[in-house]
User: What shape does this take?
Amino acid sequence: MTQSKLIDKLSNKTATIGIVGLGYVGLPLVLRYCEVGYRVIGFDVDQSKVSALLEGKSYIEHIGSDKIARFVGSSLQPTSDLSRVKEVDALIFCVPTPLGRHREPDLSFVVGTIESVAPYLHPGMVLSLESTTYPGTTDEELKPRIEALGFVVGKDIFLVFSPEREDPGNPMFSTQTIPKVCGGCTKECLQAGIALYDKVVDTIVPVSSTRAAELTKLLENIHRAVNIGLVNEMKVVADRMNIDLHEVIRAAATKPFGFVPYYPGPGIGGHCIPIDPFYLTWKAREFGVHTRFIELAGEVNSSMPDYVVSKIVDGLNSRKKAVSGSRILILGLAYKKNVDDSRESPSVVIMERLRDLGAQISYADPHIPAFPVMRAHRFSLSSVALTEESISSFDCVVLATDHDRFDYDLIRTNARLLVDCRGRFAEGAPNIVRA
Assistant: This one.
């Protein structure tokens, strides 16, 4: 199939779309393609996700099961059978790109996926990588593997990079309304990529290459990481000076130009901000560049859980209580408010630090009823119900993630010691410590 025929099929919605990876990025994209009338095959190696979708059930809190049930059996076909890639006209990769033990890029999911689908690729397809990665991944890792099969990229198969920009739980923006950056290996690839996304997003932002698109996503997240690092460092300074940084931020935010408010916390979490800067620092070394500014921000943000633990220890000591043997309740396991995503959450790091010091750890999170399975962290815990009796039974309560569903009056009134990492409580009460 020629490029023009592929674009025609994408434009008139007769193309079949394949999406690999049905998590926080892939599943919203699947539903968006279904909404506008495409036939979609959703691929995931996790059979539990496939089974849930086949039953019309969602496993992501902010995505209702009714949305799944609406399309399953008609336009949506979930499967773990990668041989069905031969049925699709477009294939979008939404797989993880974590860091290794030494903060080096781990492309095993990307490489493993392209190698697994390789036998089923065929001429007239457009392939899009959405996973955040370092500049050069698309044309250094994917393109050679496709060409090794005898295909010509830009003629037989069209390859693009279009970074995901999902913000789970944000009601202000959706897959449709968030502008879509897209870069192709060739101009023909870019044209196919634009056609791929044209019917599902309101605005497409074409760039000159896949590398430009890859660096765009890194810049977006590094911008956030650096500014969060700055405000986290300011938090420590303000605390030593006995100044309320949240008051300072509110005042600074009244300036109508030149200032964007960022807020301190116990660290950074999620699938992007803690990880993406290190993809660039790693790749920059290949060009003899040491990204000192980015790495410093990463060090500051990585140190925040230890800072929080030190404030907990100080607070307990002031009450003549050792951290060893203390019962400590962590409020909020998710990495940010109002979501059920605990990936890279600083709450988990704080829990581990306190456990290593001998504390008895519990957590409460209305979005995460049981501690999830994680590759690097293990707790056999379930979320504690918050009552007057349960809260007052703990030696220390730590507000790590400020979910709207928490009853803050109940918490403030009944906590013996309340360590506030989010600036949710006014200072001055004898049981409140800012962290």
